[in-house]
Write a structure and sequence with these properties.
This protein is mainly α and about 260 residues long. The protein folds into two domains: about 55-170, no CATH class; about 180-255, no CATH class. It contains ten helices and four strands; from the N terminus they run αααααββαααααββ. The radius of gyration is 21 Å and the shape is globular.
């Protein structure tokens, strides 16, 4: 609501003079912060191409709703995934687990605990909303859950299930079963653009996309990414590459739930 497209709305509001002054000052402060925020984001993206992040970012970016900035946030908050013996441990760390109430012989679960890393919890809820609007698998699951639980509880459940997938892909270094190679390649295209050639170790965008797909053992069949009327080439797999890309029917996958 504070973006440039809404400035005319703010300017047309009928407000006392003192409040008009406050609005102008607040919007000016936001304008001053914008370049600083972009500078921080550019540095975070640059670091995504460096170790120890570079080996792990692709496994998160493949998931719906998670871009390079959110991937870096999650990796910074979670640290070494080996700290969490199970996915449920990671869920508890994020505060997305249901609270348990006990009284005598009665035990029942309540709302999520909200104890833990708030940024992980909010990032996963944000990713869940994107997933349920853009990915058929998660959309279908959300609709089933929403009918039974209502939308607020359903989206938290999706966030929790998506975090389970985060644990699996990081802990076992595999592609998600529900990953759609062309969509993943498109996300790697965006990542490549944000990095710029200087931060891609000299790789072209086509070669960068192929390298990240091969990191996931995914998408041998992908040769291009389509954006509107434009088509962007993806480098062909190299059989002699050190890490063999596994054909789609052969690759190791995990349940998304």
């Amino acid at each position: 609501m504070f973006g440039p497209e809404h400035r005319s709305w703010w300017n047309e509001l009928t407000l006392p003079t003192s409040e008009q002054l406050r609005v102008r000052h607040d919007l000016t402060i936001l304008d001053c912060f914008e370049p600083l925020i972009k500078e921080v984001e550019a540095e975070v993206v640059r670091q995504s191409s460096l170790e120890p992040w570079a080996e792990r970012v692709a496994f998160l970016v493949q998931l719906p709703g998670i871009g390079v900035l959110n991937a870096m946030l999650l990796l910074a908050a979670v640290g070494d995934i080996g700290r969490f013996a199970t996915a449920s441990k990671l869920i508890g760390y994020a505060g997305l687990g249901a609270s348990i109430h006990s009284s005598g012989q009665e035990h029942y679960s309540g709302r999520i605990t909200k104890q833990g890393r708030r940024e992980v919890r909010s990032t996963m809820v944000e990713a869940a909303w994107v997933a349920v609007t853009s990915h058929p698998y998660w959309k279908a699951m959300f609709e089933r859950l929403a009918d039974r639980l209502g939308r607020p509880k359903a989206i938290v459940t999706i966030a929790r299930k998506l975090l389970v997938v985060v644990w699996h892909v990081l802990a076992e270094q595999v592609a998600d079963r529900e990953a759609r190679p062309e969509r993943v390649a498109g996300k790697f295209l965006d990542w490549s653009w944000r990095l710029g050639r200087a931060n891609r170790a000299g790789l072209t965008t086509a070669a960068f996309i192929r390298r990240e797909l091969e990191r996931l053992h995914l998408g041998d069949e992908v040769t291009a990414v389509h954006r509107g009327n434009r088509t962007f080439r993806v480098a062909l797999p190299e059989p002699s590459a050190g890490s063999r890309a596994v054909p789609s029917g052969e690759r190791v996958v995990l349940p998304s739930g």
